Amino acid sequence: MAADGTGDKLDGDRSQAAPTFPEVEHLCNKLFEETVAVKDHYDHNEALKWNTKLVESITEGLVAMSRPFKYCVTCIAMEAGAKFGLNVSSTCFWDKQSDMSYSVRCESKNVIAVCTIFAVNCAEL
């Protein structure tokens, strides 16, 4: 990704390039809105189902971009308005020229989620 967060690290054909942050952010927010934000309240018993559906949908959306990447998608979801903080960190040891990671915060009146996506270029494997 370019330093400004708008481009990608691979030159040439877009079909070979890593998804841009705006592409990933749009996908995550769209699917969050469809899957989680439509719920009228936070239900701890249903949260696992929502979260599972969300990460599966994000993965499917990334794969549908038909880029030569393998993806790992995680999501932490919590009830909005909870009286505690949330800190999320991740790191990887990989090729910084071709592999990518993204963290996207999604929010509704009832749920806050942080989706983390790792994209590993498999064209170079």
Task: Compile the SSE list and pairings.
Blueprint: H1 21-37, H2 44-64, E1 69-79, E2 100-107, E3 111-121
Antiparallel strand pairs: 1-3, 2-3
Helix pairs in contact: 1-2
Describe the structure using short key phrases:
about 120 residues, alpha+beta, Ribosomal protein S3 C-terminal domain, three-stranded antiparallel sheet, 2 helices, about 30% helix, about 25% strand, disordered N terminus
Descriptive report:
The protein has 125 residues and is α+β, with helices and mostly antiparallel strands. The protein has a single domain, classed as Tctex-1 (Ribosomal protein S3 C-terminal domain), CATH 3.30.1140. It is built from 2 helices and 3 strands, in the order ααβββ. The protein has a 3-stranded antiparallel sheet, covered by helices on one side. β2 (100-107) and β3 (111-121) form a beta hairpin. α1 packs antiparallel against α2. The protein is elongated, with a radius of gyration of 15 Å. The relative contact order is 0.22. The model is unreliable at 1-11 (pLDDT under 50).
Principal-axes shape call = elongated
Helix content: 25-40%
Task: Report the β-strand fraction as a percent range.
Answer: 15-25%
Tell me about the largest β-sheet: 3 strands, antiparallel
Regarding CATH, which class? Alpha Beta
Q: Order of strands across the biggest sheet?
A: 1-3-2
Number of domains: 1
The appropriate CATH architecture is: 2-Layer Sandwich
End-to-end C-alpha gap = 20 Å
Number of strands: 3
Low-confidence stretches: 1-11
Discrete helix count: 2
CATH superfamily: Tctex-1
Q: What name does the CATH topology carry? A: Ribosomal protein S3 C-terminal domain
Overall pLDDT score: 87
Protein name: Dynein light chain
Organism: Panagrolaimus sp. PS1159
